[in-house]
Write a structure and sequence with these properties.
Blueprint: H1 2-25, H2 36-45, H3 49-89, H4 93-124, H5 127-145, H6 153-172, H7 176-195
Helix pairs in contact: 3-4, 5-6, 6-7
Amino acid sequence: MRKCLNVLFAACVIGASVSSVMAKNKPAPKQSPLKGEYAMLAREAGLSDEQVVKVAQLVAKNKQELSQWKAQNGKQIAAAKKALEQARKAKDKEASAKAKAELKKLESGKATLSKQLKEDIQSILTDEQKVKWEGFTLYRSLTRKLAKAKLTKEQKAQIRKLADEAGEELSKVNDNAARKKIISRVEKAARAFIKK
């Protein structure tokens, strides 16, 4: 009996050792170079490894450009913000409007860099990936807007279906007014079946 227990114990030790060695030899899961919004893009739109690398390069380039933009404009922006704050405290509408205009003009460079990144990323997506991404971003936006309704899983699934269907339309439209109409229509439809 004792011999049998020793053999069983030895078999367990060997089995544990082998599984531990096998676990160490498994390749580690791929670590994506993308974080946050861009990691979601890769997952939801189904980007290839090559596309992930391209997006990571575009994001790094944009980050560097933003850093340079901040270095060039940071002091001017801080001054414009201070001027705006002082104008508001003084209740000087004319000075406030002037400071707002200056701040908007200064920050337009940042908006241009962000817009360029978005366009660059869109240019490497396939039509199918654009549809998926538009659908996901609309779904996420709608679920945030409707969060107070405490959506059920079924309601979220219905919203996802509506958003995915609208993704096709949104991926083909560049006009902001047309995009807003599509989004408004889908939001209205989502609110309608939540009330049921």
